[in-house]
Amino acid sequence: MGADRHESPVPAPAGSVFLQHYDRLVRIAYLVAPATRRRQSQLVRAHRLVQRSLPWRSRVVRTYPQLVARVLRRAARPRRLALPALVTWAWHTPVNGSREHRAVVSALAAAPAPVRAAYVLLMVERLPAREAVVLLHEAGWAEGVAHVAAASGLRQRLGDELGISVDRQRELLAGAPADPTVVRLRAPDPETLRVLRVARLGAVSLAMLVVAALVTTSLVGAAPQGATVPATVGMWAAPETAPLTVRRVAAQAWAGASELSLASWPARGTRTGDDQLVRAAVTAWQRLHGTTDDAGAGSGGGAHAESTPGGATRDGGGAATATPGTIGGVTVSTAAGAAADPPIGAPQLLYAGELDGSAVVVLADPTRIGTYTVTGDRRGLRVEPAPGTAADTASAIRIGRDGDASRYLVAPWVARVETRALDGRDWRPLAVADGVSDPVPARSGECWSGPLLRLRAAEVATSAPFVLAELGGGAALTELRYLPSTVDAGGATSPGLDGADGAAAWARLGCPVSDLRGRAPRSVTAWEVWSGRLPQTTGTSRLVCLRATFPGDGNRVSAVLLAPGGGTSRDATVASASDTRLCSRLARDVVVGWWWRSPGGGWHHLAVGSGKVRTIEVTVAGGTRRGTRLVASGPYPAASAPVTVRASTRDGKPVPVLG
To answer: Which pTM was predicted?
Structure first.
């Protein structure tokens, strides 16, 4: 259901879905239900809520999201009459949590029910904002956008005021204290035992009366509909029933924002006051409903296509698809990863002005960028994924292309912008007027060669310059980073690429990076794993682990061997993997193994390790060799012998192998 669940909402018998996801459903009920003084009763009630959400008919078909909606509806209802937790031989209580856990639970308990539900969907289920809004609607709350925005604000306040990061909040909510299926059994209350011994039958009768009363009150209780939302619910909030409108941010609002993101950008451009133009752009986006009018305008159900400079389209993998369609006379195209749907809430106005002979309006919602253009009598709308929420990746977006040159809209906190080619040495200043850069020409060639943008922003915490590049062909740019061999994959980055080693390494990576074009990675990090001399060669070779992260937590890792010298003819990708922790802060050490043909013609198996690797053991065709940072086996007549590679650090921990 969420980004990390990797499961589609396939209809199945409700009982099967209930059994498969019972733990998750109970956790949702436990966190969303109103807090009580007696945690034992709250724990029991969570189980009862989920059990009562199971449809009566055994053959009825439900999806997991449908059961979640039923649980949310029941959990959010106020407790008019509490059914006691019946105790027979022991007293069950939730596992005690840390001070951070109690702070999160307290903040969650103080929030309105729909905001609690939205917070749980975002943090526990890890749903994208759009899916959370849809599920809140199904649960009976009409103002889902406002509730999701309020939940995002709650998440941010916990980080800003209490220092509990988003990752830490998720960790706390996944722990045993928040899991109602994990309990401690303790000695029961003595008075309760006496009552049970003396009047067991009476207690059971009383419980039955309470059950009847609870059922009666639940029948007359109404499902929550549009619960009151605090006035400050987050920067993206807007009543869904409000008239068609656009959100405008004040020029200096970003200076007081708790986080620097696209949501704090002011509206810029010479036509921000042209309500007719802006309304036309908003109307064009509002008309999207997953399909287009033209018969060949993409597949039904909102097939996403990516425009190419020549007007053809391609999907995320580069395959050609149909020409974009038209809606109300507006040519519409959607990039891979962007939903062909109306904006969530009132879109934010980022820019409205004249660019290269066209009127351009740039709008944004929490997940997408909508660019509306008017050129003569032609009107177009392109919807693309928005950049990440980090201050660096949200510091510039591409808003226009004139031939082979691109223009960029720059965040108000950026003090200086420079540009150069990938293999260039000197940065040159890039002029920016009213937030829009001068055109930056792109270099053509078989391999990607830039351009690069270097931005300096004093308001960003690191205050160091960072480098962005246009890899996906869309609005969102990619951050480029470099890690020298002296640090591990989790060390501090040097994203400026100003050092000689970083600039030299990235100048050789244009061809490997070309494989990422069209996939719009959030960031690409080049970590120099090893450098040294290979058999029968002169000069220093370097092995670079190139890690690309994509929206939705996907990633791709490639190990690139940079041969001695400055050319790229012998550079090669020797190993790769997708959706892996390798070469990240979660896997700080790595060994790369591959077959390599020496200048003499013989085949060698090479295994190299990062800085903290102390032992590498390679078994090829029954023979074993051991070493530290480099183990070269061979030569062999062909690269066909079976290979086993094992490695460990100084303290004996195993090291993962890429290859």
So the answer is: 0.60
